[in-house]
Amino acid sequence: MNKTWVVFDLDGTLLDVSARRIAAKALVEKVSHQVGQSKGEMLRSVIELPELLATDRVFQGARQLLEELSENEDIGIVLFTARQNRTLLLGQLEGLDLERFFDMVCNTGGEPKRNDFLPRQLRHGAIKIYVGDSYEDEIAALGLGARFWPVPESMSKGDSPDSILEENFFHNLRSEILA
Ligand SMILES: [Mg+2]
Question: How far is the CA of 125 from the centre of ligand 1 (A)?
């Protein structure tokens, strides 16, 4: 039997990365006058520093959903992220004990998310739901013929962490995936 595939973005979707973004911006502000790089380039070069990755937090309810979906043999789970460094990505997933839930971990190496970063079997309608927090995710979902399930902005931005909002988001997503 063919699996039902579900795609998850990582940053801002499964992980609250707001603390990391704030720390990275502060770091760039502190040293930006010393070097010849643009702020955008600098931000890119510090955003995946291990000490900053250590500030990421798994959203409330995300682990429970991944656990349940991964036990369902009819469902395949794909992580699709634009992270630049795959070694650090896998290390972080292992450290957070998330790695075991995914059938596939695909990263673009910092490139914009294009569908050809995913295996051929996932293109053209194989994916039921694509969960993400950005416009880029929405476009990728469209290209894959998948239904896009957006993370509420207040959650992905992590302005005021709300565990009820997070729990509800993953609870509703669960119903949708299993429907
Ligand atoms: Mg994201």
Answer: 22
Assessment of whether the complete model's pTM goes beyond 0.90: yes
Kindly report, residue by residue over 12-43, the tens digit of the pLDDT.
999 999 999 999 999 998 887 776 778 888 89
Which pLDDT does position 161 carry in this prediction? 83
Output the CA 136–ligand 1 centroid distance in Å: 9
Ligand 1 centroid distance, CA of 121 (Å): 23
Q: Give residue 1 CA to ligand 1 midpoint distance, Å.
A: 31
| Rounded distance from Cα 68 to ligand 1 centre (Å) | 22
Q: How many of the other CB atoms lie within 10 Å of CB of 139?
A: 16
Among 157, 131, 159, CA closest to 144: 131
Q: What is the CATH number of domain 4-16+57-178?
A: 3.40.50.1000
Domain ranges of the chain: 4-16+57-178, 20-50
d(CA 59, CA 26): 23
